[in-house]
Amino acid sequence: MDDEDPRPGGTDDGGDLLSRRTLVGGLAVGLTGAGVVYGASRLGSGADGGETTVDMRASDRTVTLAESGSGTVSVDLAGNPIAGAAGPAVTAYYWSDFQCPFCARFERETFPKLVEEYVAPGTLQVVFLQLPYIGADSRTAARAAKCVWRQVHESAPDRYWDWHTRVFEEQGSERSGWASRENLLGITGEVEGIDAGAVGTCLDDDAEAVAASVAADRSLAETFGIGGTPGFVLRNTGSGAMGRITGAQPYERFESAIEQIREA
Amino acid sequence: MDPGRLRGAGRDLARALAYPLTAWRRSLAAAAVAAGTFVLLVLSTFPGMTAEMLAADVAYLDDAVLLLVGNLHETTGPTGVALVFAYAVLTGVATVDVVAQVRLAGVRSAARLSGVAPGLLAAGCASCGAGVLGLLGFAGALAALPLGGTLLRIGGIALLVVALASTGDPRRCAVP
């Protein structure tokens, strides 16, 4: 750096601080900051993926994901919604938090394309798991998801997808109250084929069971080092080879990871 | 606080902030450090994702930065983005001031600027903390702090500002 480059206007009395260069520099920093903040606000609002439908199904299987000296890691599929046909080449275990904006971004921008390219053709199935970490409303939403699945898993499993996507569409700011019990039941009441009153009853009467199911999902996430949402573990259904993806990464990254696991 | 001392501190802060603008090379160095700091802080908000994307291909760097800047705005709002930007700018200023101090008066004189370190650490940890804590298995720990860690960021930046105000222009000797 050049210390032999004094500014005009002196250096001693503070008046130099208002020199033209200082003012221009300060203005440039301010404008850059405003530009960064404005740009960030535009980056957050991604394109809508449009209407997507997917076949949901239930399973009563317990899948062993990994075995090691310290024990067996398994997931009980009975309490968890599954998107896609049985017997796919790859399974994605997908942890989300309904209050997480990055999850909403994945749901909006990437999930519809994954459904179209991999789930609908039967290559991929997605197991929905809960990892609520943004406060009490996130926990309520996770439990509500379990209650909704309990209600529809036998008679109309596709309704779960409607509910799940609707809740993400209604997402507001974190901790703003949009995911309170009352609001969630209001949203639930607007989803055709789901009895909001029964979901409310489930949240009260089956609180312990649904909380335990959410806790099992969280424990599984910890086992695989999923420290944020959205989080994914991809598994080759045949060979058992696994990989991890965290965050709302671009579709190309999911495509590449799925192909890699498929061939592993 | 004595109004005279307050005015003096304000004048010293302005001098410390203005010093990088006294030469183009200093300005560019401060801007480069600020830009690097901003990118690092943004990437560290979700280190797991950053590591996966960069391990797949370094060309994903711009995608990762844009995704995470957008996510930073969605999780902390314009205030959060502005605070990270402010922290990055102050880090650029502080770095140039420290280097000038060392060059002009030697390493020992930089002790005057050692007060910068707590602010750098506090604000930096608050800015990247959510991701780092998540990586350590404490997902949501920062989200549990008041205003999602915004207060901690403000506190860290305030420490940096106080440190810069106490040093002033690195070319001038401090008169106790």
Textual characterization of the structure:
The complex is a heterodimer of chains A (264) and B (176). By secondary structure, chain A is an alpha+beta fold. Chain A is built from 9 helices and 8 strands. In chain A, strand 2 and strand 3 form a beta hairpin. The longest helix of chain A has 25 residues. The termini of chain A are far apart. The N terminus of chain A is likely disordered. Chain B is mainly alpha-helical and 176 residues long. Chain B is built from 6 helices and no strands. The longest helix of chain B is centred in the middle third of the chain and has 45 residues. The chains are: A alpha+beta (264), B mainly alpha (176). Chains A and B meet through helix 1, helix 2 and strand 8 of A and helix 1, helix 2, helix 3, helix 4 and helix 5 of B.
> What are the secondary-structure elements of chain B, in order, as H or E?
HHHHHH
Oligomer: heterodimer
Number of helical regions of chain B: 6
By CATH reckoning, the class of chain A would read: Alpha Beta
Percent range for β-strand residues of chain B:
under 5%
**What general form of chain A does the structure show?**
globular
CATH superfamily of chain A: Glutaredoxin
Concise account of the structure shown:
The complex is a heterodimer of chains A (264) and B (176). Chain A has 264 residues and is an alpha+beta fold.
SSE inventory with pairings:
The complex is a heterodimer of chains A (264) and B (176).
Chain A: H1 20-44, E1 56-57, E2 62-68, E3 71-76, E4 82-83, E5 90-96, H2 101-109, H3 111-119, E6 124-130, H4 136-152, H5 158-169, H6 181-189, H7 196-205, H8 207-223, E7 231-236, E8 242-246, H9 251-263
Chain B: H1 3-18, H2 24-43, H3 47-56, H4 61-105, H5 116-135, H6 150-167
